[in-house]
Amino acid sequence: MTEEGARAMGERALSLNLGREELVFLLWLLGVNHIPGLSPRPLGNLTVEQAAIVGLTAEHSLRARGLLGTATDGRLVLDRAVAALLLPCAFPEYSITAIRRSIAGRGRGLYIHLAGSRVVAHTVPEPAIHRFVALAGRPGAAALLAEFVEVDTRPMPALTSVTLPETLFREAQALAARGSDLAPGVLTRAGLDAETAYALASALTAAASFVTVTVTRHAPDTSTHGGVTLLVSTGGFWALTRAAAPETGEAMIMARPLAGEAVGELLAELALAEQEVPSETPYDLSLLTGTR
């Protein structure tokens, strides 16, 4: 971890590692079925009897580690440290999900949840192991996000933002993913000038990874979402967002070139937002992970 990441978490930050089965059992106690970073069916297709054995084993493990106790009335009680780390993830007010995928499709995630004054980061450092770490408030969340994205000082491409139909962007991306030299022509057909079309096609072709950052404000009746997908290439960063054209409702993609410093500012803006969630949504990352 970098020095910045250490400051974000704090050298003595409250932290906890849980096995997948332990996490599922604790969420069951809290009446929560799922949190980001946990697969929808974490225990697979177990029978009721098998699931009961897994749950009992997880309970014994948590008790042995001092993470779970029993109240005088017989109720199971979470250790205070466990509650401080798990409750914001189970009942968040504001969440930041960052998924980073290489061009080959391999991915990893960072899940940050805020509830009241508590800010907790959840990662999966290895299969079936879930790590929870308390952060130093929203600034700590911003710093950890920047580290996860690997923000650096690379300059901004000398270009302006462009907006084009999603259908043509997908077509250009698919061509670029195959290394085809036809991608700039598709972008030109979408209305981009030749220089910008070539630069964006080159960025798509040389993409090292894509990072989708989604922010969610949770509410009892509904939740609001927003965010951005960052295309990370050797030539710089491109921020990709999706919105509907006001007149026609057609899905449009805005591609905005950014310097490393500007990416850090954008991530800080998302992490530090108190009330408003961006109206733009991230471009669907699954559409950007073509194979070469």
Percent in helix: 25-40%
What Rg do the Cα atoms give?
21 Å
Q: What's the end-to-end separation, in Å?
A: 31 Å
Structural class: alpha+beta
Q: In what range is the share of β-strand residues? A: 25-35%
When the domains are counted, the total is: 2
Low-confidence stretches: 287-292
N-to-C SSE string, H for helix and E for strand: HEHHEEHEEEEHEHHHEEEEHE
What form results from the Cα inertia axes?
elongated
Oligomerization state: single chain
Q: Please tally the helical runs, counting DSSP H or I stretches of 4 or more residues.
A: 9
Mean pLDDT score, rounded? 86
Main β-sheet description: 11 strands, antiparallel
Number of strands: 13
Can you tell me about this structure?
By secondary structure, the chain is an alpha+beta fold. It folds into two domains: 147 residues, no CATH class; 127 residues, no CATH class. Strand 6 and strand 7 form a beta hairpin. Helix 5 packs antiparallel against helix 9. It is elongated, with a radius of gyration of 21 Å. It starts with a helix and ends in a 10-residue tail after the last strand. The C terminus is likely disordered.
